Amino acid sequence: xxxxxxxxxxxxxxxxxxxxxxxxxxxxxxxxxxxxxxxxxxxxxxxxxxxxxxxxxxxxxxxxxxxxxxxxxxxxxxxxxxxxxxxxxxxxxxxxxxxxxxxxxxxxxxxxxxxxxxxxxxxxxxxxxxxxxxxxxxxxxxxxxxxxxxxxxxxxxxxxxxxxxxxxxxxxxxxxxxxxxxxxxxxxxxxxxxxxxxxxxxxxxxxxxxxxxxxxxxxxxxxxxxxxxxxxxxxxxxxxxxxxxxxxxxxxxxxxxxxxxxxxxxxxxxxxxxxxxxxxxxxxxxxxxxxxxxxxxxxxxxxxxxxxxxxxxxxxxxxxxxxxxxxxxxxxxxxxxxxxxxxxxxxxxxxxxxxxxxxxxxxxxxxxxxxxxxxxxxx
Length: 379
Fold this sequence. Notes:
Blueprint: E1 2-9, H1 20-35, E2 44-47, H2 58-66, E3 72-75, H3 82-96, E4 101-109, H4 116-123, H5 139-154, H6 158-173, H7 186-191, E5 194-196, E6 199-200, E7 209-217, E8 226-235, H8 251-262, E9 271-274, H9 279-289, H10 297-302, H11 319-322, H12 328-342, E10 357-364, E11 369-376
Parallel strand pairs: 2-3, 2-4, 9-10
Antiparallel strand pairs: 1-7, 1-8, 4-7, 5-6, 8-11, 10-11
């Protein structure tokens, strides 16, 4: 058994003069304070990767910088799924007895630390090096291909995707530290400039500076510790040209196994933290996991299902689409927000329901790597 015992996150956006290690340090310091632990209590460290600091040994580099001497250290790289993969790994390491308190941390100055073109070029390497990358495809264009096929076969509309963007922005308006806080409407989304049709500018997450961290412990060290109930992964492909399907991915198998491991079902979940790099990402994941019927995620959002006071509050901080996306730390912010909501420490944006169970799901690559985790409030 393992527990999420403390969380920390920086504001996301533009932080001139920041660096990977400074953003990681800020988030890690906040997570330790939230857990009520000292640096000497940390005997494990799991880090994500950074495109602005592509060090071969980022975990031990950060350990030295942060002043900890872990008996276990690890770096994880599965794209956007890295955040939850780091959490799952820490859960397994704690259960295996190799460490008692593991600091999970990621951060990156992706907005100010490299040019837009460099960011796009780096991320595009998720494509197949011979048949995809030379054609100039970027991450948005890969997801646009998925969107085109999914919308054609399932009947999802651009208007439906826009509703998801509006919901995320509505949540971010209420969240201090969110990168994008100006209210938007469905018409605003539909009128925003095309990036890779059918995806428009407001269908895409921003590139941000930021960092996030949490502590996974062997024991519930404080009154706001949450238990990790079940985890699972699924990796169906690496390159889009090798994907077995463009309408079914690994979210279904991954979440189903996580539910089975936890001994619960989709109907038991009262809070959802779902990866949302693009509106199509969020739509597919919500529908494949089973929170919405196929093609219905946008209509469900418009009807209030995913609002903070709805049946299933979703990404109440604004998600990647509006709180921001700083690489691996983007998904970690979902964990931070989930923890604050389930422990009723979210302040003015606290949801009125009191869910006992949350599902977190991360997606990496081009819908290729999936990690699901069920978390429980026991107090």
